[in-house]
Every structure is written in structure tokens, then in C-alpha cells.
Amino acid sequence: MSIDCIRGGHNFACPGASALIDETTEDRLVKNAVIKYLKLFGETVIDATPGNCSENADLAYGVGIAEKSKANLY
Q: Phi/psi at 54 (nearest 5 deg)?
């Protein structure tokens, strides 16, 4: 069985760009759509997007989840 691990970039405590669009908000929309369609194709998907936290905690959380789940794709 293949496991895919998806992490939305940035978070609301450590945001990305926000001039024309809010990168964190838009990223969540794309991430959710990718997860939806991967699941429709029968993939097992883990959402490794953390809550609001520092940049280092954000990155470490996603990598940690991917490693623990032995994800095929991150």
C-alpha cells in the first residue's frame, strides 16, 4: 500500500506572501484539493500540515509525520 503525505506550506503564525493573495489561505485550498483527488484515485493520504507555529516547528512537524508514516511521497 502506498502512503502519500501532503503538507501545506506556511501557517497563519508564520505566513507567506499576502500582497495580491494570502499564500497560506490559497495553499490550504490547493492542498485540500490535492488530497481529495488522490483519495478519489484510491491513495492513502496523510495531511501533515501543522497548526500555527514557528517556521522550524512547521517544517519539523511535516517531515516527522512523513518519516513516521513511511510515506512514499511527501
A: -70, 165
